[in-house]
TrEMBL record:
Gene Ontology MF terms in the entry: translation initiation factor activity
Keyword Protein biosynthesis: yes
Compartments (UniProt record): Mitochondrion
Function (record text): One of the essential components for the initiation of protein synthesis. Protects formylmethionyl-tRNA from spontaneous hydrolysis and promotes its binding to the 30S ribosomal subunits. Also involved in the hydrolysis of GTP during the formation of the 70S ribosomal complex.
Name the UniProt record assigns to this protein: Translation initiation factor IF-2, mitochondrial
Keywords annotated in UniProt: GTP-binding, Initiation factor, Mitochondrion, Nucleotide-binding, Protein biosynthesis, Transit peptide
Pfam family for this entry, one: EF-G_D2
UniProt cross-references to CDD domains, sorted A to Z: IF2_eIF5B, IF2_mtIF2_II, mtIF2_IVc
Length: 730
């Protein structure tokens, strides 16, 4: 059957067929599969098409499949050659890139995993060890990775990012003068440690705060409302005078109206006195000088005033504006004059505030109370605080549940200049944070979320600066290394780089082991936020990392918890507590896990303990302890077997020579030998020791040509514990 006739038959049967036959369908498929192109194919197909059972679908399939086959065969018979179509050039994958992309973003744009990006940058100058999935890549490395992956890049279309709306809470505009009312002055008592600040306040309040303080020093900032016999009210802030509490003094100075500078008449101007003066000047707050301890025999008030002239504190007696009051806080002498001076200055300042509207204030101190939860001591500066108010401070917010005064008595409201304890905080806010009232809890959450977002953005910027600095350092190091090998051919350069990398990798485990041994992880817990802040400020001055690294794993407010013990166990650290407790269960868990808990209630004792712990981490130094000294008078040789041994005749000038000890030979100030003795004789007898004034003969474990005048020193090595070189400043 010819190809033309075959096509005609197919078309004819295709138009006439209306019945489906599965049997025919299978047969045609079997025939096409097994006999395609064979000489018997046409006969088989022709016979099959003449059968009464066939279907339209079958014929359509056969016509489509076989028309192509027969057309090809006819083409070959006519002598025409089919030209194969050229293969289309494979298009490179396009990758949309931006000027700065993280490793993970680039991998996602390339539709690859992160490891693919690392492999693409393997033989470049970038430091792969410092790369993380969220590390940002510069434009040059993005292009390099795309190019090495056999792809092409195109710049992503710039889309204008949605600017996040500022949701922060802000202070209200200045109040209308017509609504302002007089308020009590806020007075901060400042000065050097042990100059009588708290005793002075006790005398004014008729209380015994000083008697209850650990170590006789103030270690917290306190806020008290005092009503004088004349009826006037004054809010006093008592700040610590110890060097460790500089931040507390600065915080007190910035929320106060007047500073009472307490200076002991028998001690004069000291370091923290000068610092307190500086805090008052920075806050632009007027000063009243209280010269305390005037009842002491060696009190010299004039010396105090003259010393203050050097620091621009000029008393009225010397033509200045600073009032000076001579008092004795212990005996209560002249306290009325001090109170009158304070009230007079407050009247001159015309202190007023707006008691209406949303509340504004400052966190003086914060802590975690077992029964109340997070508690803050605050000074209200504007508005009137009541129960149910919603407050924000830093990254914490509160729905005010309870308010208490300094005597732990419940309060219903607190107006301007009133110190108050606030209960209801979700977290402990940091001391010094500004308190702002907002309209609702939802608004408070928006403010906190915005502040956390801003903090994250700032942290990202800081991290980016660190990453860029590291990459720049690595690039410079790599360029320097390449320049040093520029005179080598590529094979020599590759070999040298391999040896350098191998040596570098070999030293890494050893360095890591040394760092682990010379590190002290610590966990700090304090009773209030200000105490923790003071300790951390001291630890910020630590500058002995080359001896032992100080690692602050965690810090917080409150008693020592199980989480603190678990952290200490994980990092092999020590838990330090300041004015906090550890219950019996926590102590037992610490003993079981081998964790040290060190509790202190005086800050300088805590720091001393920390210094001792750091020193204990240092390896001991070996010191030579001289036992005896002798001088060589003469030399001679002794024959032992076939060998002549040099022997030194000596006289012991100091101490004694002990054969079991170590020896060294010194000639004209230079040590020419160290070792042990083989023989030590007095006259003809072998002896163990030779004392001062006696003569002896000795030989050493090495052949040394002795000379008269040489010095023989007997010594022993003793281990001495190193001390950390860190000086916290007190």
């Amino acid at each position: 059957m010819s190809g033309k006739l075959f096509l005609e038959n197919l078309l004819r049967y295709n138009t006439a067929c209306r019945q489906l036959c599965a049997l025919c369908y299978k047969e045609v498929h079997r025939t096409r599969r097994t006999m395609l192109g064979s000489p018997a194919y046409c006969t088989k197909l022709s016979r099959f098409l003449n059968t009464p059972k066939w279907c339209n679908e079958t014929l359509i399939m056969v016509s489509i499949s076989q028309t192509r086959l027969f057309s090809t065969k006819l083409g070959k018979g006519s002598g025409k050659t089919k030209i194969p179509k050229p293969k289309a050039k494979q298009e490179k994958q396009e990758v949309e890139i931006k000027q700065r992309m993280s490793v993970a973003e680039l991998a996602q744009a390339m539709n690859k995993d992160v490891d693919h990006v690392y492999e693409a940058l393997l033989h470049t100058t970038i430091d792969l060890d410092s790369l993380e999935p969220d590390s940002l890549l510069d434009e040059v490395w993005i292009k390099e990775a795309v190019k090495k992956s056999g792809m092409k890049y195109k710049w992503a279309k710039l889309t204008e990012g949605k600017v996040r709306e500022n949701k922060d809470a802000v202070n209200r505009p200045p109040a209308d003068p017509t609504v302002l009312v007089a308020r009590p002055p806020v007075v901060t008592i400042m000065g050097h440690v042990d100059h009588g600040k708290t005793t002075l306040l006790d005398s004014l309040r008729k209380s015994q705060v000083a008697a209850m303080e650990a170590g006789g020093i103030t270690q917290h900032i306190g806020a008290f409302l005092v009503q004088l016999p004349s009826g006037e009210k004054i809010t006093f802030l008592d700040t610590p005078g110890h060097a460790a509490f500089s931040a507390m003094r600065a915080r007190g100075a910035h929320v106060t109206d007047i500073v009472i500078l307490v200076v002991a008449a028998d001690d004069g101007v000291m370091k923290q006195t000068i610092e307190s003066i500086q805090h008052a000047k920075n806050a632009k707050v007027p000063i009243i000088l209280a010269v305390n301890k005037c009842d002491k025999p060696d009190a010299d008030t004039e010396r105090v005033k003259k010393e203050l002239l050097v620091h621009d504190v000029v008393c009225e007696e010397y033509g200045g504006e600073v009032q000076a009051v001579h008092v004795s806080a212990l005996k209560g002498d002249n306290l009325k004059s001090l109170a009158e001076a304070t009230v007079t200055l407050a009247e001159v300042l015309e202190l007023k505030a707006d008691p209406t509207g949303l509340v504004e204030g400052t966190v003086i101190e914060s802590r975690t109370d077992k029964g109340k939860g997070p508690v803050t001591t605050a000074i209200i500066q504007r508005g009137t605080l009541k129960k149910g108010c919603t407050l924000v401070a830093g990254k914490s917010w509160a729905k005010v549940r309870w308010m208490f005064d300094e005597n732990n008595r419940a309060m219903s409201e607190a107006g301007p200049s009133t110190p108050v304890e606030i209960v209801g905080w979700k977290d402990v806010p940091s001391a010094g944070e500004e308190i702002l009232e907002v309209e609702s809890e939802q608004r408070a959450r928006e403010v906190i979320e915005w502040r956390k977002y801003i903090e994250e953005q700032e942290k990202l910027k800081e991290d980016q600066q660190v990453i860029e600095a590291k990459q720049k350092e690595h690039q410079e190091s790599y360029s320097k290394e390449r320049d040093s090998m520029s005179h080598l051919n590529w094979r020599q350069r590759k070999s040298a780089m391999y040896r350098a990398n191998k040596q570098r990798m070999a030293f890494r485990p050893k360095e890591r082991m040394e760092n682990e041994q010379l590190a002290l992880p610590v966990i700090i817990k304090g009773d209030v936020d200000g105490s923790v802040e003071a300790i951390l400020n001291i630890l910020d001055s630590y500058d002995a990392d080359e001896q032992c690294e100080l690692d602050i794993v965690h810090f917080g407010v409150g008693d020592i918890s199980e989480n603190d013990i678990n952290l200490a166990e994980t990092f092999s650290g020590v838990v330090y507590g300041f004015n906090v407790d550890a219950n019996k269960a926590i102590q037992q868990a610490a003993v079981k896990k081998g964790v040290q808990i060190k509790l202190h209630n005086i800050i300088y004792k805590l720091i001393d303990d920390l210094k001792e712990e750091l020193s204990s981490k240092l390896p001991p130094t070996v010191a030579e302890n001289v036992v005896g000294e002798a001088s060589v008078l003469a030399t001679f040789y002794v024959t032992v077997g076939k060998k002549k041994l040099p022997v030194a005749g000596c006289r012991v000038n100091k101490g004694q020579l002990d054969r079991k000890m170590k020896f060294k030979l010194i000639r004209r100030g230079d040590i020419i030998w160290k070792g042990s003795l083989t023989t030590l004789k007095h006259l003809k007898d072998d002896v163990q020791t030779v004392k001062t004034g006696m003569e002896c003969g000795l030989s050493m474990d090495k052949d040394i040509d002795f000379q008269p005048g040489d010095e023989v020193v007997c010594y022993e090595d003793t281990e001495k514990q190193q001390e950390i070189c860190w000086d916290p400043g007190f």
